[in-house]
Design goal:
It holds the Pfam family GFO_IDH_MocA. It contains four helices and four strands. It has 114 residues and is an alpha/beta fold. The protein has a four-stranded parallel sheet with strand order 3-2-1-4, with helices on both faces. The protein is globular and about 30 Å long.
């Protein structure tokens, strides 16, 4: 059986990715959107059983083994880092640390340029 997938994003590209994953046998188990309304609308449209606007809810979902991040680069990087920080070298999940809310958990990346 293929791993359960958690998808981050609700864009038009996500509307293509979810059916592609499903057609290849990947069960899409969770969907994250910037707002609860966006997440709910797409989840119902794509027949995804769980939706949220809280990042940690997807990362900790018991049926999610793999994530697909379809977001702008700064947020993609932050979610990817958080995902990888919570898997130790033996591949076992660790408890998530830090804020447990949605977008507020990731302040914008502010890089100074010379």
């Amino acid at each position: 059986m293929l791993p359960g997938v958690g998808v981050f994003g609700t864009s038009l590209t996500t509307r293509v990715i979810i059916p592609l994953l499903q057609s290849q046998g990947f069960p899409v188990k969770a969907l994250w959107g910037r707002t609860p309304e966006e997440a709910e609308e797409l989840a119902k449209e794509m027949d995804v059983p769980f939706y949220t606007n809280r990042i940690d809810d997807v990362l900790l979902h018991q049926d999610v083994d793999l994530v697909c991040i379809n977001l702008p680069p700064p947020l993609t990087r932050q979610i990817a880092v958080k995902t990888l920080e919570n898997v130790n070298t033996s591949g076992q999940e660790q408890k998530l640390k830090g804020p447990q809310n949605g977008m507020d958990a990731f302040p914008p990346n502010r890089t100074k340029t010379p």
